[in-house]
Structures are given as C-alpha cells and as structure tokens.
Amino acid sequence: MIDETHDPKRVSWVASANGHVDFPLQNLPLGVFSPPGNNVPDAKARGGMAIGDKIFDLKAALAAGLFSGEAETAAKAASGGSLNRLMALGSAPRRALRRQVFDLLASDGTNTAKARNLAGGILHDANVCAMQVPAQVASFTDFFAGIHHATNGGRRRNPNDPLGPNYKYVPVAYHSRASSLQVSGQPIRRPSGQRKLPEENAPTYGPCRKLDYELEVAIWLGPGNRQGEPIPIAEAAEHIVGLGFVNDWSARDIQQWESAPLGPFLGKSFGSTVSPWIVTMEALAPFRVAQPRRPAGDPRPLDYLWDEADQRRGAFDIALEALVLTEKMRAAGQPPHRMSRSGTLDLYWTIAQMVAHQTCNGCNIEPGDLFGTGTISGPTPEGWGSLSELSQDGQKSNTLPSGESRTFLEDGDEAIFRARASRAGYVSIGFGECRGRVAAA
Amino acid sequence: MIDETHDPKRVSWVASANGHVDFPLQNLPLGVFSPPGNNVPDAKARGGMAIGDKIFDLKAALAAGLFSGEAETAAKAASGGSLNRLMALGSAPRRALRRQVFDLLASDGTNTAKARNLAGGILHDANVCAMQVPAQVASFTDFFAGIHHATNGGRRRNPNDPLGPNYKYVPVAYHSRASSLQVSGQPIRRPSGQRKLPEENAPTYGPCRKLDYELEVAIWLGPGNRQGEPIPIAEAAEHIVGLGFVNDWSARDIQQWESAPLGPFLGKSFGSTVSPWIVTMEALAPFRVAQPRRPAGDPRPLDYLWDEADQRRGAFDIALEALVLTEKMRAAGQPPHRMSRSGTLDLYWTIAQMVAHQTCNGCNIEPGDLFGTGTISGPTPEGWGSLSELSQDGQKSNTLPSGESRTFLEDGDEAIFRARASRAGYVSIGFGECRGRVAAA
Question: Phi and psi dihedrals of B391, rounded to 5?
C-alpha cells in the first residue's frame, strides 16, 4: 500500500496543504461536512477530504465528472450524509478514490488543470464548514488495550495483580453507547448521576464531581461480517477503514459506584467525542511497524489472535498528546497545556487482534461501527492519558501554567487531543484535533 | 388507558382470535412481517398486528383507505420495514391506530363491514409470514432488575453480600450488542471463544461448553430524548412502546473468563433473540399493578427514581415460563418441558425507573431502542430463569421427562419462553412465543 500517494516530493496546488501539520497531500482523510451558507446542516451534509485548510467536496467533484471507475463508485457512496455506504464497499474503491483525489490535488497530476479550473466549486474553507460524526455508528465497542492505563486503574483494585489473570490473553472490551457520540467542538455537558464517595453513607444524585477525559484512538470499521462468521485475523485489514480520536469522557464517581458487577454504564454514556476526520489505512501505511515485543514471560496470543504479518507490521507508530485549556488560560490568550504524551505503541493488542476478537464468537460488525482502543497511557506519569491517573483518583493536584490546579475537569475546561505520525523519508500526517469543552451541569 | 378496547364482551370476526391464548382482539400487538409469496423478505416487509392466527396488514389497510386522522399517520409510519418511525411518534397516534384497528376487527365495530369485505387483502395467515426484529435497534441496554437472579449470581462471587452495596440504589445495567439481535425462530449458533475453566492453567479457544438461555422481558422504546435532557420519571411512560421477550443467550464459560473488569462482552454478543410482537402499553393497561413493597430496611429510591404514580401502578403482573425442547423430545413428539415459572413482579425496578436511570446523565434514547430487564427468576428454584441458576453453574444436573439430563444447553435444544397477563374481568393476553434452537458451533 506504499505507493506514489506517499511520495514526499509531491506537493499540492492547494498551498495550505504543503507543510500542513495534519493534512498534507499525503493524508486526504475522509469526513462528513456541511458546506457554508447552509441553514439545514443535515440536509446538505456530504463526504469530503481534508486538504490543508480546505475541504475537498466529494459530492461536487462527482457531479463535475472528475471521477471514473471504482473511484466514482466510492465518491457516490460518500456523497450522502454519512460514510456508512462507503465503508460497506471495502478497501479497493476507497483506495481508488484516494489515488484519483491525489492526482487531482497534486501540482503535477494528470488531471490537475481540470480540478484547478473547478476549485471554486469543489473546495471549501474548512473553518466555515460544520463537521459531523462521519458515520451512523450502530455499535461502539471500547477496548482496554492501553496496558499502562489498565495497570494504573487495576492498581487501585488489586495492587498485587493490577491486570488480573485475563488481560494478557483477552483483548478486554465492553459495549459502549453509540447514541451519544458527538463530534469535536460540541460542548460536553457535565452529567448528573448517582455518586457515593467512600466516606459517604449513601449515594446522592447530582452533578459529577470527578469528570475526566480519556485519550483514545478511534477505529472506524467496515464492511464487516455476517453473524456467525468470524473474521480471521489474517483478513481483518479489509475491515478497518481508518483511525481518528475518541474522547471517552468519564464520570469517575458515577462509574465507581455503578460498575459492580456489570461494568461501566452511565459513567460513560453521557457523551463521547470523536474527531471528524478518518485517517485511512492507506494514508497510515508508511507508519506501520512491528507489534512491540511482549515482555519475557507474557503468554503467546492464542492462535485466533496470532498472525505473522500482523506481528511484523500490525502496529502503528503514532505520537499522541492530551492537552487542557481552562477558561482562565483562554481569557489570557495562553496556549493549551500538554498533560501527557503517549503513543499507539503503548497498546498491548493490535487493531487486527481487536477485530478478530470482536468477531470470534460470531458477533457481526457493521459498516460504520466504531472501536475505541481504551485510554492510551505511556509507562511513566508524563504519559498518563487521563486525569484519574494523573491525579491518582483525585488525591494529587496538577498545577497548570496559569497557576490553577486540577484534579478533575472544571466547567469551561477544554480537552484537546493531537496526533502525529512521522517517519524519515515520509511526510508527517496527523488526525486533526479532537476538542470538547465542559459545559455546566 | 382502560377503555372499550379492553371490554371482555367484545369479540372479533376473525374467529381464531376469540379465546386465542396470546392474540385476542384485546391485544393487537405490533410487529414487522413479510407476506407470503415473497422471495425478497426485506423489500416487502411492513408493519402488522397479530389477531388470532392471522396478521392484520397495516400497509394494505392504509392503501385501502381504512384509517383516518392520527391512526392514518401511525399506519403510514408503520408501513415500512421497521417500526422505528411509528415509535418516534409517541403514544397518541399509536393509541388511535389501536382503536381504529379494534373497531375494524370487532364483530360489532362501526367499520366492521368495510374490513370484512377486504379481508382477503388485509389479513394473512401468520404461519406463512416471515417475522422480523420489529425495529432497527440502535442501542440495546440490558438491566439486572431480576433481584432473585442477581442474588443467585452474586452468591457465587460473595456469599455474604450477593447483591453488593449498590444494587438497591442503582438499576444496574450494561450496554449490550444490538448488531446480533435476531428474531424468534432463527437458530442460534453455539459460539466459540476463549474459555478457561478454574481447573485449567490457561485459556483455549473453542466452542462454548456452558451455553445458557436467560428469560428476560424486552422493552421497546420511543420517541426518546435529546442528549443532555434526562427524561423525568413522571414522563417515562410516554417513551415506552411495549413489551416482548428477549432471550439473552449467554456463554457462561466465555463470560466468566472475560468479564473482569469491564463486564460481559463476547459471552453475550453472539446473538440475542427477541419475540416478534410488541405488546403495547395500551394492551397491557389492565395488568398494571403497584410496585411490590420493598422489604423492610431497603432504602427508598432516590428522588429521580421515585414517582407516586409509578409506585402505585408502575409494575406489571405477567406470568412467565421458560421451557426446553430437546432433539430427542422433538423426535418423540413430546411437548416442551417447563424449566421455570416466574413473573414480572420479581423485578426490583419498574420500567419507568429504568428509563429515568438510563437518561439521568443526559444519555439519549432513540426510537426503536431496546431494554432487557435482566433475567427474571422467582425466589425459589422453580422460578430460576437460567440454566446457570438451575444447574448451579453446572454442578447439578436437571432431569427432563425424556430421561435426558441437562446442566447447560446441548446442540439441538430449543429454549421457549411464554407469557400470560391475566386479571379477573379481563381477557388474558400473551406475548407470543420466543423460540431459538441451538445449532452446532
């Protein structure tokens, strides 16, 4: 999958793309947007690709006759208000679309002139477009594959065996809530719920007192499998569309009280924020690396989770950051403050292993389904991807450059995630930001 | 809501309805079916109502001009391949539809003659129609409100405090899997997965060795709320469409190994069977009763779960049965064997409490969402609604009339659920059966 669309010498006639931190010509992520001047966003939402600070309009480009063959099929499927139909097509049409858009937007493509002539109709300024959750998500599974996060959380339950007996065999996950997914930029309202602090005799209902973010990578899926027919790990790649962010906002006090014995529920379901752009597997191909070697003594994954090719190239080398911007910092014009740095190499399981596990019992994945990786924390405090870890569940205060201190999120605080995939000889790409600001209960 | 549609003296000109165990004139449950002679079931699926051993075709009746006003709006919304649009309308149009269909199908209705003349076009033999899951389920929440089941399960974890500290405060629930819902009559394939029995050193991947059914009541929901705006318990009724069954098939060995710390996942997601008919809140109105008095010492529900009207009339008196039919019994022409008898009065929480809890953090319910109550077991072994309870997790064998014995389900076994709502002075109604036969892995 490493081809001319990764050539670092190619540049775009869309000037802002060249050197863009997230969206150079070599990225071309997929999303759903409403063009400017539109009073009914849903009615006119359509698929697009980010290029620099512009959005390339797939519906308009299709109407202008810029696509042919499989790319045309893909552009048609991406012209509606969600990308589910595109995701149902599998990888070949998506790859063809990427190639033709690359050719249209490159300075030296075979169809560059055609596209440049139509620029006014097929390119929109991103900052005046409204982004949407890119697909209708039928099922949202949240994994727990960030081993340092799992260790940090487990230590509170069982200091001697924080991961428990199953962690290194089972890609642990739970069903999460799809209805309350929202897109980056929408406020997240502080939830109310039942909370009981250890020192209290009985629970009360009221606003969450331990509101947290969780830095996770989102995995968008399709076409998926028929019920009863597992996806073998060697075929998982065909069902993975691309990556983005999910902020798995967590109300720790609600979660801690409710979770026995069936797991997290209302502590998570009040809202989860996804970043609007899906960075495709094609764009990420140069950043694939070997699955990090398991520590000596760790069990070999069971056969249904084992694939030589996946071991050699199934992981990703993507650097991640979580930042916080408070109301006070915003007013003072200060930049967001980085709370942690971690990366996708801190995941214990590959995405192919997640797909194989999710379906190994015959459970069916549908186009547009979403996985979260689980919070991705690094091995040391600099890498801890949630405030629960950074504050040791509220015991330790974190000082910000504004002089403020935080255990958990206050109203007005904004959580911001950033990603960067880099490799010598290639153009770096990112996911675009995932942002969400806490609104009062 | 108790009106002429509950009058026990009214009968139908559809002869099989009168005295029908499940579907007399006074029930009229909603479902989605494909009429006979249809080679492409999905393309022609439409809403209908069960009446005796027939299905009343809402799309055909609409086309024949049999409806007016709000009932016409409801019939239009029910004419497609799922009931989501009808569920989005709320209770008034659904109630109007019920009244007009009652009038059409009663022997002495004002429009009886019109309907009888069209009988060939608007009634189908149920046994030649293909039923479907009645709605596209976006989110499926499974509660844990059967207190005897929760106690039986908890006893294995903690004999001294089987329910744990939160059970009597929190309507405990988890997100379950919507993609693998199937309708009564479809086979359920024995799932494979990671299992580790306590006596084994390491897990293996293979077919489930502890396959179980769970007797649950299904709750169909709509229209639902906007994200961030909880549904107050006093308004919950408007969002409850009706009831049916869900068999929450469970792979106990997979579940036991995977569930720490995030709860059940693949042990449940391989498939859940729903009964095809939604028995509406209107049909169930005569069978509403007071919420059973909590034992002395139990806490009063928190305010957001407390509503006087709900306490007085929020529960249902519906008798439930779980039966098993093995391959050998089937071959010998033996009837299914009843494994347990319980009822909806064995639920610790009302449905309105479930709706209020689900949304109390701002989580949004969408039209067509599904709740399961959790397994409904009675207080004694005669009432235990799963084989895990009846066999004490496989320790105790249950003898069947065929001479066979069972701890968990064998291939070819069929689990069958039946319900009956009865009250002096009213015509009894049922849900129709929920059946699923185990196919080999």
Answer: -100, 5
The predicted model gives A384-403 an average pLDDT of 97
Residues B98, B166 within the same domain: no
Cα A269 to Cα A271: distance, rounded to the nearest angstrom: 5
Say yes or no: B310 and B342 in one domain: yes
Residues B48 and B188 in one domain: no
- CA pair distance B369, B136, nearest whole angstrom: 8
Q: How many CB pairs below 8 A link A and B?
A: 188
pTM: 0.97
Provide the shortest C-alpha distance from residue A175 to chain B (in Å).
Answer: 5
Cβ of residue B191 closer than 8 Å to a chain A Cβ: yes
Range of the domain at A25: 4-132
DSSP run (H or E) holding B337: strand B337-343
- Scanning every residue of chain A, which has its alpha carbon at the shortest distance from the alpha carbon of B193? A361
- Contact list in B for residue A253 (CB cut-off 8 A) is none
Domain boundary among the residues B80, B110, B132 is at: B132
Q: Can you tell me the distance from the alpha carbon of A172 to that of A349, in angstroms, rounded to the nearest whole number?
A: 10
Instruction: For B400-436, write each residue's pLDDT tens digit.
Output: 999 999 999 999 999 999 999 999 999 999 999 999 9
Strand partners, B288: B316
For the stretch B214-267, pLDDT in tens is 999 999 999 999 999 999 999 999 999 999 999 999 999 999 999 999 999 999
How many domains in chain A? 2
- CATH code of A428's domain: 3.90.850.10
Q: What is the ipTM of this complex?
A: 0.96
Please check whether residues A70 and A115 belong to one and the same domain.
Answer: yes
Nearest to A429 by CA among A437, A420, A438: A420
The answer, yes or no, to whether residue B209 has pLDDT greater than 60, is: yes
- CATH number, domain of B64, equals 2.30.30.230
Calculate how close chain A gets to B32, using CA atoms only, in Å.
20
pLDDT per residue over A192-232, tens digit each? 999 998 788 999 999 999 999 999 999 999 999 999 999 99
